Amino acid sequence: MSEKRSVSEMFGCNVFNDSVMRERLPKAVYKDLKKTIEEGTELNPAIADVVANEMKEWALEKGATHFTHWFQPMTGVTAEKHDAFIAPTENGKVLLEFSGKELIKGEPDASSFPSGGLRATFEARGYTAWDCTSPAFIKETPDSTILCIPTAFCSYTGEALDKKTPLLRSMQALDIQATRLLHLLGKKNVKNVNTSVGPEQEYFLVDKEKYLQRKDLIFTGRTLFGAMPPKGQEMDDHYFGIIRERIGKFMKELNEESWKLGITAKTQHNEVAPAQHELAPIYASNNIATDHNQLLMETMRRVAERQGLKCLLHEKPFQGINGSGKHNNWSIVTNTGKNLLEPGDTPHDNQQFLLILSAIIKAVDEHADLLRMAASTPGNDHRLGANEAPPAIISIFLGEQLEDVVKQLVTRGEATRSKHGDKLASGVHTLPDFEKDATDRNRTSPFAFTGNKFEFRMVGSTQSISDPNVVLNTIVADALSEVCDELEKVDGDLQDVMMEAHELTKKMLTDHQRVIFNGDGYSEAWVKEAERRGLPNIRSMVEAIPALITEKSVKMFEKFGVFTKAELESRVEILFEQYAQTINIEALATLDIAKKQIVPAVMKYQKTLADSVAVLKATGMDTGVQESLLGEITENLKKLYTAIGILDSETVKAQSIGEVNEQARFYHDVVFGCMNAVREPADKLEMLVAKEDWPMPSYGDLIFEV
């Protein structure tokens, strides 16, 4: 058994991080690489061999035998191809080598990953390129130890085929525009600006043996059938409740594995639904936070497997109880350590903060359709607008303090005061009084200001956070760019610039105040009010996808070099394909389970019951109850069989549609409803058939017996 280590010793032990590089690299090489990482300067290829050799030696000391370019294709998960460090010699032996060229460039097959038409099937070449801003790490499994090098993935002709490349481009765009703005406001000491992100990850844990008896969970990640148990989440007793020993053991190992990888796993607790939990990290640079979240999801699955559990990351594993999201906490930070979303004690006096805040409000209002698209997955369609997650309507929650400041600026042209929190007195002498925050929080808001950051609450639990952050970074860069264009027209000193900044703040808040909403986002009244304000209500993924290729979106993304039009069109095709394929798999799984498991089980129980009725009748006993039950089962079995036939034919029809966008819409509009029509009588039958005769574990078994 390995020696137990403290958290401080454990943290980052499998990461080729700054302290390791400082210790192992020559000073000049370290300084050169550090400049690229911190300031975004071009990577000096001359240092690659030195870095590669030290990285290899460090990895070998950790027990690694192979390395991989770890990348994030448009599948939504990560990919890796392992190469050994060996190189043959003339005497039949091998040397352990790893060159700068191998560090910088890899060449996986690009034809088998989603490309949306960017690559033909016969055009196989693609490249992975080292992302030195995200540190290499060691991935340990019971069977292998691999050096993983985070990389971007692009086609032979240069188009981005991954999630990382657009994210890095969007971070660069926001950096340039935010730094430009700060220089105009007199902050010449700022060299660069970064986005900082902390994604909260929700997940379910179920027993592995029970999971393996559920084909729907195996094939789709969610239950396609299942009647609600007598108790769900009504009592609110699971939320922040005592963590069971088995779950605590999982969390302990998950923390340790995460800490080794440098993931700052910080907060863990039970979530609202039974068997649901959450883990939240400390903030990290946008790029690193994205890599870490992908690693975290992988680590959750691996640790759960080792402990006889299954980790469900689907947005809605169980109908009738809360699903899982991923709250994307986003802020903007300068290289000098200043959080640009920190309002200070008197936000009405903080002109820089108010200008940036108003630009973000403008960005969200103008590009609400893109933000909605960025949180779109087939699974998230089950959550958004379902009164358990933010509504599908994009709005911004600012809280009482900032809403009051905005109101002053819009109505009077200036803000002269800021609300402050009162003392919170508990009424118990031994408990301390303390000052409340100036405003409460709002869990129904999709985009909420929470102190010194915005919390984008719509993101789905399975998603790469690259997608929402690419959009968020780019739309804010666009708004800041327009502000800078206006400020650069000012013919005067800094005071004149600040006066113009004040006028721009007022104008943006006046023009875009419609998107600010502090009330109950779950209410039907808000849906009507949002419609009156002209805010879009995009209810599904298939409705959201086209936002990527509107003239407005293409112009903006191309302006900042985040996406070309061809890259956007490819992603639209991929998203439609992913939706259609997801629902097709769910439809086929529904048919498979219904035909091969549920119908035979019900017919067998039906026969047993009929035989029982015959025996009882022969003895002259009253069989009214048994016959009534038999009739109810027969009626629902007929409905089930009819619904199976309709789903079967509509799925075949969907599969024959050639245009991918039309196919996705047909799956959404027709096939999905047919699946629900199969489920309805099946779930009723579950409540009529004896538990020991039902062919799969129930909801109660899955969510309470963990």
Automatic annotation (TrEMBL):
Superkingdom classification of source: Bacteria
Matching SMART domains: Gln-synt_C
Gene3D superfamilies in UniProt: 1.20.120.1560, Glutamine synthetase/guanido kinase, catalytic domain (3.30.590.10)
Residue span(s) of domain GS catalytic: 163-598
PROSITE patterns in the record: GLNA_ATP (PS00181), GS_BETA_GRASP (PS51986), GS_CATALYTIC (PS51987)
Family in the record: Belongs to the glutamine synthetase family.
Protein name: Glutamine synthetase III
Protein species of origin: Anaerostipes hominis
